[in-house]
């Protein structure tokens, strides 16, 4: 797929400086630019590469001034970085603009599917499923009975969505995710054997949620596990039963949240964080990577460590952590001197 400089400038509301008919069919870094590729320049330290790149078209700020002549066609915009991001979104939409139903697939007679759908090969759509308009379901996906999926959602290949799950509009669920599997609920009987407690709740995912590859969100024991509007989950995250994640919270990879914990709005949680169950995490909380959360956190707390405590206190304490052997040796020497003085 090829685009001219003028077509790209029209999309970005920019101005062409050079050949408006110059064509590109791929994207590249400015330092690795090839003929027929499009690149961008926003960081001044990369300015020298503009004069050596082989990229056919480069997006630059309107304020950028050339120091010497170049053969690359420029598209001048208000903000090169934002414009390039916008172009990537447009490119992604065009690239993934699949439609129709591939064979083989199974769609229950009771399922209702909106307009402009894409159903990939080997997909299964169960009874009483309701799917909105412009939804894309990639191959090898499973949509369980009584599930609802809103408009403009993308379900990538290999996703398994269990029954009764509710998904809002404009959500993306990446490959290998499992939504609505049983929560980890077991109780010992008189013989000491652990028996599963039926998990009869569901999962609710509100609008504009992104869920990264390989993540798992368990259904509630009773009620719902809820992922609120605008939440962004990285790859390989575990959300346990009856957890609630507040709107616009972001969670990095390999984090695990235990059952019935409530996480507030606009939180930022780093990678490999572990949060125990039945806690309340306030709004605007920031948790540094690899922290272990064992108690409730108030609004706007910033914590680190295991068990986690205040980020500033952690950094101050870490100076002492690193010097513990020296401190211990000093204490031992002081004790020896004191003992010597007592003997004298």
TrEMBL record:
Residue ranges of every copy of the Mannose-1-phosphate guanyltransferase C-terminal domain listed in the record: 104-182
Residue numbers annotated as active site: 241
Gene3D superfamilies: Hexapeptide repeat proteins, MurE/MurF, N-terminal domain
Class of this enzyme: transferase
Keyword tRNA processing: no
Keyword Acyltransferase tagged: yes
Keywords: Acyltransferase, Lipid A biosynthesis, Lipid biosynthesis, Lipid metabolism, Repeat, Transferase
Coiled coil region boundaries: none
Domain UDP-3-O-[3-hydroxymyristoyl] glucosamine N-acyltransferase non-repeat region: 23-89
GO MF, one example: N-acyltransferase activity
Record note on quaternary structure: Homotrimer.
Xref: HAMAP family: LpxD (MF_00523)
Xref: PANTHER family: UDP-3-O-ACYLGLUCOSAMINE N-ACYLTRANSFERASE (PTHR43378), UDP-3-O-ACYLGLUCOSAMINE N-ACYLTRANSFERASE 1, MITOCHONDRIAL-RELATED (PTHR43378:SF2)
Family per similarity comment: Belongs to the transferase hexapeptide repeat family. LpxD subfamily.
Identification of the protein by name: UDP-3-O-acylglucosamine N-acyltransferase
Lineage per the UniProt record: Bacteria, Pseudomonadati, Bacteroidota, Flavobacteriia, Flavobacteriales
